[in-house]
Design goal:
Belongs to the class-II aminoacyl-tRNA synthetase family. ProS type 1 subfamily. By secondary structure, the chain is of the alpha+beta class. It is about 25% helix and about 30% strand.
Length: about 575
């Protein structure tokens, strides 16, 4: 493609709102342009890269027997209400009304739509298993769109859905999809980890996230320093053992703690370590009020609390409800003399404490020498805290370390979460009606593109992996006004195209410095420069990633390019 005929507007400076490298370089290099907050257009060169990622996804999906289809982006609310997600999905679901005031959602995901189709069309076990996928724009009303393509309100996603007759069959499909996802991200050249994750509003239980390691990632990965164990920090179980001391319980005393609101403030004032205090937080878990108690140096994990109660919604109780139930605000809460309508649950570490401090449920006061089982009762103990660096790895090998990651894929074993609610059944080999067993699988295609840039760039621009780059070769004519340079560049352009090599030909009448700067921004793996030695039939070839340069005879350029790309 001749660059002089393409829409590739480049910028010298970073956009003011671009905080991370992928956002900066994709805008500066003319790959994307923002239309509204969190909404982007892909310009021609950006669309080419997106297509490369899509092609890899399609190939891997087809290898495992998944078939592509297309579903509408406009989804009737009736389907979402069948599963209850019209309420539980939350404010991220974009909702609209048509002229007849019928409610719709712009597709954030398509579990309800595909389940409605399959329940109407699949009646027998002989038609199972089925796996279908689509690549389609999705919509979510992000409260704070940021980081360019990493957190947008409209984004390109590959979503797939499987329907099986048994959990054993689902396990097989899940593993195939897991392996296919691993292949996709390897082929994209990404350094990633598959981590144990929470299913959130998707439903189901078993699930893994595929995380691209990056300092700009919004998710924290807990991983073992000696094994392959990895999990989202929200899901990593704590394997630490807590031993109760030989200390005898003392008489609990109420102590004034004026203006001491934080755990550290209270610990410093009372003269003890943070780990010797109790942190109490009030939650509303569906319709139940729950006080979650951890050690002072630990943090309550609301995902674990949600899973403990098998709840749909877990949120902090309002200060109004907290004062109504306990008579005080957040800074003085504690598990002593809690009313019956509040259930007290505690992390396992709390059970090992003796003579701890805790809020007295009275403004400006705390108890000292509070011992569980003696001075307050706990409804149940559970793993309720976030894992910490240095904790034992849950698989028994090594200790936990943290890394940041960008989520690019997610696979779920949904089980009967949707099919039971939507009455998606089939007749088994004995003629009995059985509920279909489902899986759901997603790849953020546009997000993957941004994640690649986060791992492949330098100070001058993008350094695309060979299989993802928009073109294989960037051909530069340094001075199109000189006939020998123009003629050789034109001949090379035609020769490379005839050989099936993808070429972006910079035939613009621009200064050499502008062309080199734009070429570095674009990040095309090989740059061929036709310059002063054109009359000799010699060109300069440069490897964008390594900076290595070679003088090559133009007559052998096709062979050179093909050899370079072998094994890439």
């Amino acid at each position: 493609m001749r660059q002089s005929h393409m829409l590739i507007p480049t910028l010298k400076e970073n956009p003011a709102d671009a905080e991370i490298k992928s956002h900066q370089f994709l805008v500066r290099a003319g790959y994307i342009r923002q239309i509204a907050s969190g909404i982007y257009s892909f310009l021609p060169i950006g669309r080419r890269v997106l297509s490369k990622v899509e092609s890899i996804v399609r190939e891997e999906m087809e290898k495992i027997g998944a078939h592509e289809m297309a579903m509408p982006a406009l989804e009737p609310s009736e389907l979402w209400k069948e599963t209850g997600r019209w309420t539980t999905f939350g404010s991220e679901l974009m909702r609209i009304n048509d002229r007849h005031q019928r409610e719709f959602a712009l597709g954030a995901t398509h579990e309800e739509v595909i389940t409605s189709i399959v329940r109407n069309e699949v009646k027998s076990y002989k038609q199972l298993p089925i796996t279908v996928f689509q690549i389609q724009n999705k919509f979510r009303d992000e409260a704070r769109p940021r980081f360019g393509l990493l957190r947008g309100r409209e984004f390109l996603m590959k979503d797939a859905y499987s329907f099986n007759e048994s959990y054993e069959s689902l396990d097989e499909t899940y593993q195939k999809m897991f392996d296919a996802y691993s292949n996709v991200f390897r082929r994209c050249g990404l350094n990633f980890r598959a981590v144990i994750a929470d299913s959130g509003a998707m439903g189901g239980k078993d699930t893994h996230e595929f995380m691209v390691l990056s300092e700009v990632g919004e998710d924290v990965i807990a991983y073992s320093d000696t094994s392959r164990y990895a999990a989202n920090i929200e899901m990593a179980p704590v394997a630490a053992e807590y031993k109760k001391t030989n200390e005898s319980p003392l008489t609990m005393k109420k102590t004034e703690t004026p203006d001491k609101k934080t755990m550290k403030d209270v610990a410093d004032y009372l003269g003890h370590e943070l780990r010797e205090g109790l942190k109490s937080i009030m939650f509303q878990v569906d319709d139940q009020f729950v006080m979650a108690v951890t050690r002072g140096d630990h943090e309550v994990n609301d995902v674990k609390l949600k899973n403990l109660y098998n709840a749909d919604i877990v949120e902090l109780a309002s200060e109004e409800d907290t004062k109504r139930l306990l008579g005080t605000g957040f800074g003085s809460l504690g598990p002593v003399d809690v009313p019956e309508e509040v259930e007290v649950v505690a992390d396992h570490a709390v059970e090992a404490l003796t003579n701890a401090s805790c809020g007295a449920n009275e403004e400006g006061y705390h108890y000292t020498n509070a011992t569980p089982g003696e001075d307050f009762q706990v409804h149940q103990y559970a793993d309720l805290r976030f894992i910490q660096e240095g904790d034992p790895s849950p698989d028994g090998q090594g200790v936990i370390k943290f890394a940041r990651g960008i989520e690019v894929g997610h696979v779920f074993k949904l089980g009967e979460f949707y099919s039971e609610r939507m009455n998606a059944t089939f007749l088994n080999d004995q003629g009995k009606a059985k509920t279909m067993i489902m899986g759901s699988y997603g790849i953020g295609v546009s997000r993957t593109l941004a994640a690649i840039v986060e791992q492949y760039h330098d100070e001058r621009g993008i350094t695309w992996p060979a299989k993802i780059a928009p073109y294989q070769v960037h051909l530069l004519s340094m001075n199109p006004k000189k006939e020998d340079q123009k003629e050789l560049a034109d001949d090379l352009y035609e020769t490379l195209l005839e050989a099936g090599i993808e070429v972006l030909y910079d035939d613009r009448k621009e200064r050499a410095g502008v062309k080199f700067a734009d070429s570095d921004l674009f990040g095309i793996p090989l740059r061929i420069t036709v310059g002063k030695r054109a009359a000799e039939g010699m060109v300069e070839v440069k490897d964008r990633a390594t900076g290595e340069q070679s003088d090559v005879e133009s007559s052998g350029i096709t062979e050179y390019v093909n050899d370079w790309y072998k094994g890439k």
